[in-house]
Amino acid sequence: GKNIYWATYDRAESTKLTLAVWDLDATMGGNWSTSNYHPTTVSPTRAINFPHGIFKRICHPSSIFWNQSRERYLELRNGILSTDSLINRYTAAVKEIKDCGAMYREQVRWTHDSDLAGRQLKIEEVELPYVKNWIKTRMEFLDNTRFGAPIKGDVNGDRMVDIADINAIIDTVLTGEGWISYPNADVNGDGMVDVVDINAVINIMFEATQPAE
Length: 213
Fold this sequence. Notes:
By secondary structure, the protein is mainly α. 49% of the residues lie in helices and 4% in strands. The chain is elongated, with a radius of gyration of 23 Å.
């Protein structure tokens, strides 16, 4: 892909490959561009739209792998994907590039450059706090939306209960492939996908429109 290549950290220690990237404006730091494209693209509350087939097959709530993916995500959130762990590792990486002199060289090279819209590059003072806040906000967003607790009646996995879920159940009944396309189609949990599940979704939608007592 563009601006990316395969690399090994130390071939004498391990031949394991990793992805090395560069040209990181608006990727690992603040919005350095004056265009409106970058803030939208890197927003920590931007929804995942699943453009890639393999990612959709594994992580989309309509996938048969969804429960396993969610369980693994929640497991890792208590470890290497915890907010503190992510921030600490990023902070350690910034310290490493500072200690070796790379941070100073980068700041001298890119300050006032057009890629930064003429701004001064301040990694420790500006970029690091930005990234820390981005990580915190992003993980909270994922916890509460994409990997949040399942919503009863949300058959198609869009975190809403609406007519689209009824259509998903109808598709399931007509094609007979409900457990592949929509594993959450059995809304009432009786082991079958049928008109009873449609009624269950309608009831959930109706209850949601009723004023609280």
